[in-house]
Amino acid sequence: MLIKQIDAEKVLNCAREGKVALRKDPGIHSFSHSSRYAVTDIPKFTFPEVSATPEVAYQLVHDELEFDGKPLMNCASFVSTWMEPQADKLIMENINKNLADQDEYPAAQVVHGRCVSYLADLWKAPKDGNAVGTATGGSSEAIMLGGLALKWRWREARQKEGKDTSKPNIIMGANAQVALEKFARYFDVEARLIPVQCETNFTIDPEEAIKHIDENTIGMFIILGSTYTGHFEPVHQLSQMLDEVERRTGINVPIHVDAASGGFVAPFLYPDLPWSFEVPRVVSINGSGHKFGLSYAGVGWVLWRDTAYLPRGLVFELHYLGGAEETYTLNFSRPACFVVTQYYNFIRLGREGYKRIHTDSLSNARLLSRSLEATGVFELLSDIHRRRGETYHGLLKQAREAGKGQSVNDIQSLGDEFQAGQQGSVDGVDGELAFYNAGLPVVTFKFTDAFQKDYPTVTQAAISLLLRVRGWIVPNYELPPSCETVEILRVVVRESMSADLVDGFMHDTIWALKLLTEQNGVGASILASQDPQVQGNRTPRFYGQDGQPIGDTNEPKQQSNTAMQQMTSMLHNEKTKALHDKWNKTFVWARKQMSATGEYGWKLASQHLGKEHEATGKQDSHHQSTYARPC
């Protein structure tokens, strides 16, 4: 055997850490998890000096984004997180097309124009064909465009009369989404925010709104689907009140409807609800294609009932891309692919498909609502699961008048009246929609007063945090000004949230409740407190049912036996055990009711818990998910 001489110094140098090029082409052995960034930080604040292979770059970005929440379990967002594979394919086929290049991509412009026409028909624009509209990056941009048109028309009218134009104002409820306030701030318009009340379902108070009108009012934003509770604001009622204001004062106040969410729900589920262009005072509407329009984020719409309501001074005519183009947007370039997928949804689903999908979402939202109420812990501020005309405020008033610890859950009626209606003239999906309050498939809820009294240290923020541990993203936030002392949890039930996911959500919610109530807030104090759990040799602060600390928190750890003994005793509290037994039975019972009798078989949980649970030991037959789209 021939052996080549070995240079020991050379071997040692190669063995030392450092840059060793064993091959001339380092890409040959550049692995995704064995790159220079495997043991070195990725540049975060300075531009990288050298390149990386595509495999390495992809893996690094992919791994970093794994820290995001799961879109499927994101109950906070209204934005659609699922589309069919065919829609995904269309996105990839058109992802490199710029919708602004009208001359270069004429077919994309045809699709764009058809979508505007579809929406003009859906939102009941006058049949004379003079409606005009455009795609936007989302409802935020659409609101800016609608508000600007209101301001320009008001200014032009004032200038013709020789009047001051320096103090425009616009009226909206304090529940307005931030984009509406952005319009006012960015474009120098006074935002007159009307405080919301429980009596008005936490939406704009029509009587109060009318009081804030003056000659400088450019218009009124009315929200079809509040982001707080999912309620629809009364467009037709406000329009009639504004008609009366004009008769009395001569002040003409047009309406822009923010239908970011409701614009793709109301036309299919509540076609007789007057909110769109059939109301003469409604001059413009915006909608989010990427919410209940069921497209991915990146597409919104704004339409005007007639070209007369879009001032020509806002429209630009461009010639430098090869042809004459008219545009009214805040930006120029935008992807064409999301407009294409919106068009795909329109022709794929039609009215029938949208109605079926949103009906299923509402059904699952009602399932979740009643299951939450059946725990005895939560009361619902959203009203979509209550019979038409029965509201949280009305029930709350009745409960207070009844006294003796009565709650909203004790007062309301859920199923008997609808079952009776089924035997008469009310039946089927349309009967179901007519029976319940109109609104978005949004579930908003809070602790009952009784639960807060029994467990004063258990917080809704801790529930939200524990659900996040299980993967669910559920926001806990304050209601708008004048109701900001009330905190609510909110779940948006989108197309992708099937009945089976509602099942999983309820089980995880009950798990969180058990964890917190077993310790009567220890979990809450540890998870939600701003202070560290342990500082030095201080013990954690445990709380009793009176809300007071158990034991001396200044004691060393080895002297905390008294506190732990009291905690052990509290864990066996009979009231807590009874509550847990109730939760163990509640959701199984609720699902059996749905499976056996459908949406119509619900009865008040407090009247049936016990006898309805006798068969809970049997195999539970799950209610079938209605997630599959229609053929």
Describe the structure.
It is a single chain. By secondary structure, this protein is an alpha/beta fold. It has 4 domains: 25-67, MYOD Basic-Helix-Loop-Helix Domain, subunit B (Irregular), CATH 4.10.280; 74-97 and 361-520 and 573-631, Alpha-Beta Complex (Aspartate Aminotransferase, domain 1); 106-309, Type I PLP-dependent aspartate aminotransferase-like (Major domain) (Aspartate Aminotransferase, domain 2, 3-Layer(aba) Sandwich); 528-567, no CATH class. Helices cover 40% and strands 10% of the residues. The chain has helices spanning 8-15, 54-65, 85-94, 106-122, 139-160, 178-186, 206-211, 235-249, 266-269, 337-374, 392-402, 408-411, 416-422, 428-435, 449-454, 460-469, 499-518, 522-528, 561-571, 574-597, 605-608, and strands at 132-136, 169-173, 190-194, 217-223, 255-258, 282-288, 300-304, 316-318, 325-327, 378-380, 442-447, 476-478, 487-492, 542-543, 549-550. The strands form 4 sheets. Strands 1-7-6-5-4-2-3 form a 7-stranded mixed sheet, with helices on both faces. Strands 10-11-13-12 form a 4-stranded antiparallel sheet. A hairpin with a 6-residue loop joins β8 and β9 (325-327). It is globular, with a radius of gyration of 29 Å. It starts with 7 loop residues before the first helix and ends in a 23-residue tail after the last helix. Residues 20-29, 414-426, 523-572 and 595-628 have low confidence and may be disordered.
